[in-house]
Amino acid sequence: MTKKAFITGITGQDGSYLAELLLEQGYEVHGSVRRTSTLERSRLAHLYADPSVYNEQLFLHYADLDDPTTLRRVLGRVQPQELYHLAGQSHVGLSFEIPETTCEFTAMGTLRLLEIVRDLPEPPRFFHATSSEIFGRPVHSPQTEETPIAPVNPYGCAKGFATQLVRVYRESHGLFMVNGILYNHESPRRGENFVTRKICRAAAAIKLNRQKELSLGDTSAQRDWGHARDYVRGMWLALTHEMPDDYIFATGKLHRVQDVIEAAFAAVDLDWQGFVRFDAHFMRPAEPLHLVGDPSKAKAQLGWSATTPFEELIREMTDAEVRSLANNASEGSA
Ligand code: NDP
Ligand code: GDR
């Protein structure tokens, strides 16, 4: 029988890669979307365009995270065996500006979904996309699944709350629930206001004389950056494993924002100096420190590891921006 999977946040970076992976694996894939003023869902456009996929193997349902009645009805009708919960306000810097929205969707939205799952006659396996941001300023590096939760921003607090609830529902109600503790993962489909995409896009635009300079906040900040395609494979491996558990998905390597700048400008044969300037607007009230993950449990139990080296990731993202800008220019002149 065809397996059914449901993805919240299917229009996001991870949702789109996960939908592709599950379709390749022969799943019927369902996803929840929000009502928006345009129907443009660029990350899924290639799947929409395929008549053998859209409304045949891939189905979209309107359901916001703050609308439990609709979520309950849709999930009751679809009856998925696997539920991947990826939706949420995912920008850490913005979570300082919109803390209530962030907590409403990311913390309370997850709780509502857990309650719905608990009530379903056949509860699906549940994957929660949580974050390295739950660790904030961790007591040890690299972090493991046992590292205490100690967030330093509203986003991390919301994810920390939801992470602990997933553990409670797994242990108290015997449900198959997994926390994927995801470190930063990027791709050409990354949102434009995350630092890797912003830098790669600017390097390409500067190369093509479309932009003069790039304004950034803290370029000494460090992160553990991998490729999104690897991380969605980890989600699927964790949810199809025989036992539910928590897993760190990370590369285990730290790089600075400055390293992203150097790699992206090198990919377009430019010297970054002279193009990058500091703008205090992009500084955050607090930064987490030493967020680097130890993925050895995921490797030992799921056979998972990150496969894309940092320089290759940044080159792929920058090349994609050059192609996209060049295509836009030729469309404009046609
Ligand atoms: P994106 O920001 O690209 O996608 C977020 C998704 O959530 C979009 O589909 C968005 O819909 C949807 N969404 C947001 N708010 C709501 C809402 N109120 N109701 C319904 N849907 C909503 O995030 P990513 O794909 O990068 O990340 C996926 C998840 O993994 C997120 O929860 C994120 O916090 C978490 N995560 C991501 C990491 C990363 O490095 N990428 C690392 C650690 C955790 P729309 O398209 O309409 O905006
Ligand atoms: P992050 O990603 O906060 O780690 O959250 P982001 O790319 O936004 O920031 C990474 C680091 O770069 C510094 N920085 C800037 N960041 C942005 N966005 N814009 C700038 O101009 C800029 N200049 C410097 C930031 O201060 C930070 O230190 C991502 C998200 O995907 C979360 O959803 C996820 O949980 C975590 O990764 C793990």
UniProtKB/TrEMBL annotation:
Domain (NAD(P)-binding): residue spans on this chain: 6-317
SUPFAM superfamilies: NAD(P)-binding Rossmann-fold domains
Active site: Y183 (nucleophile)
Stored Pfam families: GDP_Man_Dehyd (PF16363)
Signal peptide from the UniProt entry: none
GO annotation (BP), single: 'de novo' GDP-L-fucose biosynthetic process
Gene Ontology MF terms in the entry: GDP-mannose 4,6-dehydratase activity; NADP+ binding
Superkingdom of source: Bacteria
Alphabetic keyword roster: Lyase, NADP
Family: Belongs to the NAD(P)-dependent epimerase/dehydratase family. GDP-mannose 4,6-dehydratase subfamily.
Protein name as annotated: GDP-mannose 4,6-dehydratase
Species name: Thiorhodococcus mannitoliphagus
Gene: gmd
